[in-house]
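Deliverable D4.2, example record:
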Amino acid sequence: MGRNGFNEGHINNTRYIGYAESGRVNWVQNYARIHDTAHRKDWEELCTSKGNGMILRSIKTDFKFPMSWPDRVSVYHKLRSAPNTATDSFMLDVLILSERHQRAAARCIEDIVVYDYRQGQKTSLPSFMLEQFSKTWEAQEEAKRANGSKALELMERVRRLEKESWDREGAVEDRGGC
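Output generated by the structure prediction step:
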């Protein structure tokens, strides 16, 4: 097997899990750099074993097609459910997008536990995480509402076009000539 999980152009499936994990670290670091700079150190610490950290409890991956080298990926994460004060874990939906093919190469579900390395046990989401995850959840839900209505509108426009063209009384299918 060649470097980075490549074998004769094929990208080994284990690399997808690495893509998801790297993407999650970048996702958390964006909170530190952009969304919650007041807790930058706390966010950065989540990616270490110094204090509270994140441990991948499980990951489920659905492969959509076999990527091959050369290709680049973009990895997108979103919260699967609203956070709450009683939780010591959270789940993320992950999309791994092939840049070359401009389509999903894999979808993952990550189950992440917050772990207190000092105490040696799971711990609930720290308040700074809970606050930011709540904001993120609300932003996701708002985007879903806004984009969902746009998608419904687009589907209705397509349906009207279908009815005006081929899905009408007397329409004849053009099978072309050979």
